[in-house]
Write a structure and sequence with these properties.
This is Four helix bundle protein. By secondary structure, the protein is mostly helical. It has helices at 9-27, 33-55, 60-87, 96-126.
């Protein structure tokens, strides 16, 4: 049974994945500060949107809207990680493997969000 947002695997995974994002963010040169801010803002928004939507889950439409926003933030995180990966050819201190880890982790998060969004109606009818 899901009683709290912390009972959602995707929420916990998104929080844990922030560690990867912060590690990657530290490697981005100051000359690309905006990219670092966009990366962390998008990633930080995911668990926040899940939590806000969960609080409004009595309205399935509203809950799904917040999950859509979280998916958008996840996809944005993937795009930022890919852009940083491209930059890694120009800056030695960026770890390509870490960029790929971030991309892979957020692909999983996006899939989990999509699955939660599509299956919530069925789950909600049971409670």
């Amino acid at each position: 049974m899901i009683y709290d947002v912390t009972d959602l695997d995707v929420y916990n995974r998104a929080l844990k994945a922030l560690n990867l994002v912060y590690r990657l963010e530290k490697q981005i040169p100051n000359s690309h500060y905006r990219l670092a801010i966009q990366l962390t803002s998008a990633a930080e928004g995911i668990p926040a949107h899940i939590a806000e939507g969960f609080a409004k889950r009595r309205s399935i439409k509203e809950w799904r809207r917040y999950l859509d926003i979280a998916m958008g933030s996840s996809d944005e995180t993937i795009t930022q990680a890919r852009a940083i990966n491209v930059l890694s050819d120009h800056f030695v201190k960026i770890d390509k493997n870490l960029c790929n880890q971030v991309t892979s982790e957020y692909k999983i998060i996006s899939k989990q969000l999509n699955k939660l969004k599509n299956n919530w109606v069925d789950y909600y009818k049971k409670i």
